[in-house]
Design a protein that fits this description.
hydrolase activity; 12 strands; PxpB; alpha+beta; elongated; Cyclophilin; Gyrase A, domain 2; Cyclophilin-like_dom_sf; 5 helices; ATP binding
Length: 218
């Protein structure tokens, strides 16, 4: 990848077993960085390994990665993070449509969403956009044919097996099934601007409209 990075592809699908290999390599690079290592950027099924071209090159980087892929690395267990979500209709404009497309009631969609086994697979697209895998098959829907503009920050979105809590007001082609007051992005923090780390587990907790309004006053 250009003159300063190597892309390690470990699969082609959204699969926890593949992502576990991504997390394992990421941990190995942090525990035993090779000379010239700068950073690693994990994704769903690949990891971008960046190096200083004045110290390393593609050949030495690939050799170091190959050695780490075969090394024994202690299992990394991510933290459990909780995200609050309110499913009231005006905060969840697509909940009824997802229910109809899934052949479920809105309450069944909510129950399914709350039961998902979520983990953070990658960051991308915009600051704080943590892509979670684990949406139950019963409520998985393809992306919308066209994106919708002006979707509020904090919107809880799903598309296929993926879930995301938006951090900025932006367009989206994903389905909006709720809104969260939980702060995912802290732009003022230099030490920890994001709530999640890749590999963390996430659980959603339903809150009432009164709780939401108390956390997000108009």
């Amino acid at each position: 990848m250009g003159g300063h990075a190597v892309l390690v592809e470990l699969g082609t699908t959204i699969d926890k077993r593949i992502h576990d290999q991504v997390v394992k390599l990421d941990a190995a690079l942090k525990a035993a960085p090779f000379p010239g290592f700068v950073e690693a950027v994990p994704a769903y099924a690949s990891i971008l390994v960046c190096f200083d071209p004045l110290v390393a090159d593609h050949q030495t980087t690939e050799a170091a990665i190959a050695e780490l892929l075969g090394a024994e690395v202690p299992e990394t267990i991510g933290a459990m993070r909780e995200v609050e979500v309110c499913y009231d209709a005006d905060l969840a404009p697509d909940l009824a449509a997802v229910a109809q497309a899934s052949g479920l009631s809105p309450e069944d969609v909510i129950s399914a969403h709350l039961s998902g086994d979520y983990s953070v697979f990658m960051y991308g697209f915009a600051p704080g956009y943590a892509y979670l895998a684990g949406v139950p098959k019963a409520i998985q829907q393809p992306r919308k044919p066209a994106p919708v503009r002006g979707i509020a920050a904090g919107s809880v979105l799903i598309a296929g097996p993926q879930c995301l809590v938006s951090t900025l007001t932006m367009p989206t082609g994903w389905w909006i099934i709720g809104r969260s007051p939980t702060k995912i992005l802290d732009a003022a923090s230099n030490d920890r601007p994001f709530l999640f780390d890749v590999g963390d587990a996430v659980r959603f907790r339903r809150i009432s409209r009164a709780e939401f309004d108390a956390r997000c006053p108009a």
